[in-house]
Design goal:
Strand order of the largest sheet: 4-5-1-9
Oligomer: single chain
Shape: globular
Strand content: 15-25%
Radius of gyration: 18 Å
Helix content: 25-40%
Structural class: alpha+beta
CATH class: Alpha Beta
CATH superfamily: 4'-phosphopantetheinyl transferase domain
């Protein structure tokens, strides 16, 4: 993808190698599904039984590829930050509503939080010492009749309706990814009606990745103090995947 952004942040940070977890260090990592082969032995060897079962259940090759890269990337980055072999990380996926193992994954016994998302040709991971959420979406995916009525507040719908022709899709996608990121950070997911979530918040920021995509990252508003300023470091993780899998530098 020729127009991918290699490094940006709402408060500028240098693109650099991983560092120890800070009290409020937010990183956003991105990669592409084709950074690994479709049956990459190295990547699949990192996954646990639950992840492998889910991988096998996905019917479409493109979905399997995004899932494989998303979870391999998470294990590599988290393992590096926590000084634990990637394949030995243990996750708790307890659902907050039914306690089954299909909820948001957390690393057992460690304060490092993370969130994953993927769409089209992008895979995104956010890591932070506070509860975090990230979401990426193809802008055209939100262009369907009735979207505003099920996803936006009354004020947001009015703002979108007032935009010049051709700008509505990007605004809708921006609102949607912000809401998803905020809901993920809070741990509620789509259990909460997105029409009740206000997308404009100090605890969420847009991430400029590529033309045709919207992306946002958020910190749990309940853990966001009045004096905090949301900033993040954006890191291209493609070379990490390729190097660790032996497919190139």
């Amino acid at each position: 993808m020729s127009n991918l952004r290699s490094d940006t942040a709402c408060t500028p940070c240098e693109d650099s190698a991983p560092a120890p977890v800070d009290t409020f260090l937010l990183r956003v990592w991105w990669a592409r599904p084709d950074d690994l082969g479709p049956a990459d032995f190295f990547a699949t060897s990192l996954l646990d039984t639950c992840e492998l079962d889910r991988l096998r259940q996905l019917r479409h090759r493109v979905d399997r590829q995004r899932y494989l890269v998303r979870h391999a990337l998470a294990r590599l980055i988290l393992g590096e930050a926590l000084n634990v072999p990637a394949s030995e990380l243990v996750f708790d996926r307890s659902c907050s509503r039914c306690d089954a193992q299909h909820g948001k994954p957390v690393v057992l016994g460690n304060p490092l939080h993370f969130s994953m998302s993927s769409a089209g040709d992008l895979v995104v991971l956010a890591t932070c010492s506070r509860p975090v959420g990230v979401d990426v979406e193809i802008i055209t995916r939100v262009e369907f009749p009735g979207f505003d009525g099920v996803a936006l507040t009354t004020d947001e719908s009015a703002l979108v309706a007032a935009l010049p022709a051709g700008r509505g899709a990007a605004a809708r996608a921006r609102y949607w990814t912000r809401k998803e990121a905020l809901l993920k950070a809070s741990g509620q997911g789509l259990a909460m009606d997105p029409r009740e979530v206000v997308a404009e918040s100090r605890s969420v920021a847009d991430v400029d990745l590529a033309a045709g995509y919207a992306c946002a990252v958020a910190i749990d508003a309940g853990k966001f103090s009045p004096g905090d300023q949301l900033s993040y470091q954006l890191i291209n993780a493609s070379r990490i995947l390729r190097y660790r899998s032996g497919s190139g530098a």
